Amino acid sequence: MSPTAPSPHPSDSDDHALVPRIIPRAEHGISRKNISNGALRVLYRLHEAGYKAFLVGGAVRDLLLGGHPKDFDVATDATPEQTRALFRNCRLIGRRFRLAHVVFGREIVEVATFRGVGEVGNCDRHVVDGRIVRDNVYGDIEEDAIRRDFTINALYYDIADFSVRDYVGGIEDLRQRRMHLIGDPEQRYREDPVRMLRAARLAAKLDFNLSAETEAPIRDLAPLLADVAPARLFDESLKLFLAGHGLESLRRLHNLGLLGQIFPATAEALAGPNCASFGRLLGYTFTGTDDRVRSGKTVTPAFLFAAMLWEPVHSLAERLCNEGADPAVASVTAVDRILRQQAARVAIPKRFTYAMDEIWSLQPRFEQRQKKRVMRLLAHPRFRAAYDFLLIRAHEEPELKEQVDWWTEAQELDSEALSKRLAAANAPNAPRVEGDPVRKRKRSRRKKHNVESPDTASAEPSSE
User: Fold this and answer.
1) Which of 49, 231, 292, 344 is a good FRET partner for 264, with 20 to 30 A between their CA atoms?
2) Domain range spanning residue 117?
3) Is 92 in contact with 80 (CB distance < 8 Å)?
4) C-alpha to C-alpha distance for 89 and 419, rounded to whole angstroms
5) Which residues fall within 8 angstroms of residue 126, CB to CB, at 6 or more apart?
6) Which residues are catalytic, by number?
7) What is the sign of the dihedral through the CA atoms of 204, 209, 213 and 217?
8) E-assigned strands of 131-207?
């Protein structure tokens, strides 16, 4: 079949009129050397069993762009049950979308049956308020292409002849470095509001622009994200911020009006009086996180989320203090309010919120230089994360530089040398070093000969 260009961006009504553009092996850069062994085994076994088998989606897109995808998805005309019959290492998952997962050690190859257009009200396809809540209607490859989200994700690599099939103009959009939603954008966003977040994430990852019609409805439809399960939004947040392009994802979300739907306190702080300083703090944080991800180092969502909510918590605590609240009470109240507000949008697991709270609560303890407190802080399991956060804060708060220098050196000393240094610094007649807290001298009280008051007996301050 000779290469034929399809209509650039077909609507749902064009499903059976699609004529694919077929790019033969000699005219594209995809090599089987860059496809995982697991994916190739699935493709070949399906093909040998008489089924159609295509590599599809982000893997094809990234291979055409010269990248090295980690995940490989397969599309086929075999049903999930037929796929399972071919692979002993296969399990079926999903209710909303029935999928087959073929497991090869740590690699999971996801196999999906071609999706059909179907009719609303079909027993296997249910739409509620415009959102697809169940969809197991199967069809042919043309219908499957129409059902995908973006044109650049609707490209198919055919294992039968190693060609690439393009039904919706994805090749041209790759060349133009743009993202175009298939079908009517408003309808597609209403079907699944998370597509708006996906648009921002992929645009950030690929450094692509959204087409005008793809971007136009996003600001008006952004409130639809309030109906998405907070647990799902947590998973999407990890994809947005912990995949090596978090800073650009943050910028895209902010510019598209989406950030306020998933991190409302962060968006509000970025529009508040301390927006410039807070924006720079987030810049330092996200840049460091992105660098660690690209270097293959571990990262934790707790540190990133602690930075994103630092200014909201800090500002609220300050306001409560100005209203007369005790500083300690104000801090606890601010943390509780902000985390509760955030949980209503993104369900951050407790193991991360606990870590965030500890990172925040340890910040004032860097001011303390008493021996016991210094040793306890250095031994704290969250010390390193809190110290790293102090480093980031020091970029915007120069008065913290002395603390950073002191604790940086303290970590390099062995316990004996550190103990001697602390003993010398805390000696009664030792000259005070700038930044060291002022020690108040204890006042002793004489006990009365006749009466010993319980209150007096317990009034001796702690030696810590």
Assistant:
1) 292
2) 1-183
3) yes
4) 58
5) 132, 133, 134, 135
6) 71, 73, 149
7) positive
8) 131-135, 155-158, 164-166, 178-179
Closest CA to 301 of 254, 251, 381, 246: 246
Q: Are 333 and 320 within 8 A, CB to CB?
A: yes
Contact assessment for residue 84 and residue 78, using Cβ atoms and an 8 Å cutoff = no
Q: How many domains does the chain have?
A: 1
**Exposure string (b/e) for 125-151, b if CB count within 10 Å is 16 or more?**
beeeeeebebbbbbbbbbbbbbbbbbb
- What are residue 460's phi and psi, to 5 degrees? -65, 125
Instruction: Report the alpha-carbon distance of residue 352 to residue 366 in Å, rounded.
Output: 22
| Residue 141 located in a structural domain | yes
Q: Look up the pTM and report it.
A: 0.82
- Order of all β-strands in the sheet with 73-76: 21-23, 164-166, 155-158, 53-56, 73-76, 107-113, 99-104, 90-93
Q: What DSSP string runs through 289-318?
A: HHHHHHTT----HHHHHHHHHHHHHHHHHH
The pLDDT tens digits for 365-374 are 999 999 999 9
For residue 55, being part of any structural domain is answered with: yes
Distance CA 171, CA 273 (A): 45
**134 vs 369: CA distance, rounded Å:** 59
Hunting for tokens 């699609």 — which residue is that?
Answer: 18
Give burial (CB, 10 Å; 0-12/13-18/19+) of 162. middle
Rg (CA), the chain: 29
d(CA 290, CA 89): 35
Q: Do 53 and 73 meet the contact criterion of CB atoms below 8 Å apart?
A: no
pLDDT band at 100 (very low <50, low <70, confident <90, very high): very high
Structural domain contains residue 175: yes
| pLDDT tens track for 299-348 | 999 999 999 999 999 999 999 999 999 999 999 999 999 999 999 999 99
> Phi and psi at residue 125, in whole multiples of 5°?
-140, 120
The pLDDT, as a whole number, for residue 117 is: 78
CA proximity to 247, closest of 298, 189, 307: 307
How far is it, in rounded angstroms, from Cα 238 to Cα 221?
22
CA distance 201 to 243: 10
Question: What are phi and psi for residue 155, nearest 5 degrees?
Answer: -110, 135
Nearest to 400 by CA among 277, 315, 272: 277
Tell me, what CATH number does 37's domain have?
A: 3.30.460.10
Q: Could you tell me if residue 399 is inside a domain?
A: no
Alpha-carbon span 78 to 100, nearest angstrom: 10
